[in-house]
Design goal:
This protein is mainly β. The chain folds into four domains: about 120 residues, no CATH class; about 130 residues, no CATH class; about 250 residues, no CATH class; about 200 residues, no CATH class. Helix content is about 10%, strand content about 40%. It is built from five helices and 50 strands. Strand 25 and strand 26 form a beta hairpin. Helix 1 packs across helix 2. The protein is elongated.
């Protein structure tokens, strides 16, 4: 019996130990899952930069997630202790204080990583016999935000052909990187000095075996000969790994080395470079949220040849889109839609077009003396136009010297309507005061300024009255206009009606639409040479007094400064361009854009040269640029952003909500649904198999591109001055070079499309 009793104790003890071991292992698995999920959830809260506020937000997110899985029994440390460079730390308790949570952010100085540590106090039911009552189970997870998994440059083949090409972030290539022309390809860490943290460690990785990391005795700075350099590590090979030499070409940054694990360190196993992913972001043209914004709400077709689009009588491309406009900022504005090609260079051959300089506000109703104003004083040589209306009177307005009456009419119930103009004004005019009699009637006026107008501008006029109430009225010129694209302006007055609305005709732009004061005025500059007319509508019906005047464009003048892609989605299939090619080409001109996503298919290219296949010859124009110098690179003021009258466009920019300080690249709200993976931070997309080329080349070519580019075929990028791609660049074959003094060619914390990566567990 004694022996049996001893054996029973031994058996029961063994069973208890087995059960405890199983319980501990099960609890470990549960705890690891909780740590993983909390860290991944918190990683998605990480943004650009680090400060106490952003760190608190990340840490709270991990804590809130754990609170959805376990019952909170403590309180999160608030504010968290620490700093960005050393890391902030906060703790909390869950499930009757049996789980202790510790969250560390940033993790080891890496701005994109967060660590969650969970410790479970597990009771031991027979612990009294062992002298202990519990054991601790600890599990941890480190998760990385989406941007942290995105290389600045990704290419199947990568050639550096001259100069120092600076990359803000990591470089990933499939085939061995080739160097020529005393080229240094330098993968720089992205270090935020203000917080002492890193968002990218600047590593260089090559999938193929045997990459020569330092070629021909090259040095990193200044350029002596060919070399590949990295602030972080350099690693090549998927079956036989080789690394760059520490301090010579790899780990140029000593501080980086302290937090960036060396894949070739002694005592570590081989860490092969993985193959490049062939995954692409979702196709924009297949996203119903995007195609709903296109003309007719229908997706574009790769096989369609679209009708010609013209600017001032000159063909500049083919498209199914609204007609381009010239709103007065010196640029031709193109509209979202389906395109075959767009040759911006042809704009330089178009006749000078009349364009709006500025439009002043409608004056408040005044008696006897009526003053209309401009936002700023006029420029010498431009045309000033004033539209006026008053209560019924047989007496015409009188004006100061220099002003000429174009046309006028009075109707006994609707009132008096007149159009005045000042040709070739001397400049410095900020307002004009008219006089109307009798002195007790009310009148209103509005003033505008126009460039590229003939010195003797008046061409056609007309007037119309309706003494009986009617829903519509048509005002026409007495004869046909002499040429196309004259400035046509109307002035409308009407009898007051209750709850009245006034609707201009389709294609006309309002300068005034004020039913409360019985006044409206419209303009346009895109009519053919013919009788000009407009049909205006009123609800309810009213009487009318209408005038119209047209003004001739100057014989010469300044051609458009360039072109702008207005916000939206643009699709290019290359069709309709003689000799192949197509797509977008600058051909010596400038193209700006903000809040745009482009899809190019087939043979369509993206070129600073011509629309010929491959991009044609190097750009030789004086302008020749995509985007304009960003204000984060060249302070504005004192520098002036391009297209200042049209919104201050800098960059050629994708939909986004965050840009470097001082820039105006983002539009709020954007046409692109917030964080839609098919357009958010996505600037250019091509499907696999596309044969078009990115060809930004030539000493004059410049580009300030904001957003990520995914290009299936060949890319040539000549980096001149401060030109940059503020995002990521993925190409099938990339040839890149930099002029002396060039800044960052590719890479940033901003403009990164993360559609092909997810938050990842690092440890």
């Amino acid at each position: 019996m004694i022996i049996v009793a001893v054996w029973l104790v031994a058996l029961i003890g063994s069973a208890a130990l087995i059960l405890l071991t199983g319980s501990v292992e099960w609890q470990r698995n549960q705890l690891q899952q909780l740590a993983d999920q909390s860290a991944l959830d918190a990683a998605l809260k990480i943004g650009v930069g680090c400060n106490l506020g952003s760190a608190t937000s990340v840490i709270q997110e991990a804590d809130l997630f754990l609170g959805t899985q376990r019952v909170r029994s403590g309180a999160l440390t608030s504010p968290p202790a620490g700093s960005c460079s050393a890391g902030y730390t906060a703790t909390d308790k869950f499930t009757s204080n049996t789980i202790t949570e510790t969250v560390n952010y940033p993790y080891r100085g890496h701005q994109q990583q967060v660590e969650v540590i969970l410790t479970l106090a597990l009771p031991i039911s027979f612990g009294n016999y062992l002298g202990i009552s519990s054991t601790n189970v600890t599990r941890r997870a480190v998760a990385q935000q989406l941007n942290g998994s995105t290389a600045a440059i990704t290419a199947t083949t990568l050639s550096c052909t001259g100069g120092q090409v600076n990359v803000g972030g990591s470089v990933l290539a499939s085939s061995a990187i080739s160097l020529s022309g005393s080229c240094v390809l330098f993968a720089h860490q992205r270090y935020d000095a203000a917080s002492g943290t890193y968002s990218d460690l600047g590593n260089a990785s090559v999938y193929t075996n045997g990459q020569a990391w330092v070629g021909g005795g090259g040095s990193c700075t200044p350029v002596a000969s060919n070399a590949i350099c990295a602030d972080g590590y350099e690693l090549s090979g998927h079956t036989a790994m080789t690394c760059g030499a520490i301090g010579t070409s790899a780990f140029i940054s000593v501080a980086n080395r302290a937090i960036n694990p060396n894949p070739c360190a002694g005592g570590t196993g081989a860490q092969p470079v993985g193959p490049l992913s062939s995954t692409l972001p979702p196709e924009p043209n297949a996203d119903p949220n995007i195609t709903a914004t296109l003309p007719g709400g229908v997706a574009c077709n790769a096989g369609t040849t679209y009708p010609n689009i013209t600017v001032n009588g000159v063909t500049v491309g083919r498209a199914n889109a609204l007609a381009p406009t010239q709103p007065g900022d010196g640029y031709v504005h193109f509209k979202k839609g389906c395109y075959g090609y767009l040759d911006v260079g042809n704009l330089g051959t178009t006749p000078a077009a009349i364009s709006r300089v500025q439009i002043g506000p409608e004056s408040a109703p005044q008696q006897h003396f009526l003053t209309a104003t401009l936002p700023v004083a006029s420029t010498a040589g431009t045309l000033l136009v004033a539209t006026t209306r008053s209560e019924p009177t047989p007496n015409r307005f009188t004006a100061p010297a220099g002003w000429i009456a174009a046309t006028f009419v009075n109707e006994a119930t609707a009132g008096r309507s007149e159009i005045w103009y000042y040709p070739n004004n001397p400049g410095g005019i900020a307002g004009v005061t008219f006089t109307i009699n009798p002195a007790n009637i009310f009148a209103s006026a509005q003033m505008s300024e126009w460039r590229n107008v003939a010195a003797a501008p008046l061409d056609q006029t007309g007037s119309f009255t309706a003494s009986a109430n009617q829903l519509t009225a048509t005002i026409s010129t007495a004869g046909a206009t002499a040429v196309a694209n004259e400035l046509v302006i109307t002035a409308d007055t009407f009898a007051p009606q209750a709850a009245q609305t006034i609707a201009p005709a389709l294609g006309w732009n309002n300068t005034v639409n004020d039913p409360a004061n019985d006044f409206s005025s419209e303009w346009r500059t895109d009519l053919p040479a013919a009788v000009a007319s407009e049909t205006i509508g009123s609800v309810p019906a009213t009487t009318w007094a209408l005038t119209i005047a047209t003004f001739l464009p100057a014989a010469g003048g300044t051609a458009p400064t360039g072109a702008v892609l207005d916000p939206g989605f643009y699709y290019f299939n290359g069709n309709g361009f003689a000799g192949g090619g197509g797509g977008i080409c600058l051909n010596g001109n400038t193209l700006l854009g903000r809040d745009v996503t482009l899809e190019l298919v087939g043979q369509a290219g993206f070129s600073s040269g011509s629309c010929a296949a491959g991009g044609g010859a190097s750009c030789g124009g004086a302008k020749c640029q995509f985007g304009s110098t960003p204000c984060s690179i060249s302070a504005c003021p004192p520098n002036t952003a391009a297209d200042s009258a049209g919104g201050g466009f800098t960059w050629f920019a994708a939909p986004c909500n965050q840009v470097p300080a001082g820039d105006a690249a983002c539009t709020s709200p954007s046409w692109c649904p917030l964080y839609d993976r098919a357009c958010w931070n996505l600037l250019v997309w091509t499907p696999a198999g596309s044969t078009g080329q990115i060809a930004i080349k030539g000493a004059s070519a410049k580009h300030w591109l904001f957003g990520s580019i995914y290009w299936a075929g060949t890319c040539t990028d000549t980096v001149n001055g401060t030109s940059t791609i503020d995002g990521t660049l993925t190409c099938g074959s990339l040839s890149i070079s930099a002029a002396a003094g060039a800044g960052t060619a590719v890479g940033t914390d901003y403009g990164v499309n993360t559609a092909i990566v997810e938050a990842a567990l690092i440890e």
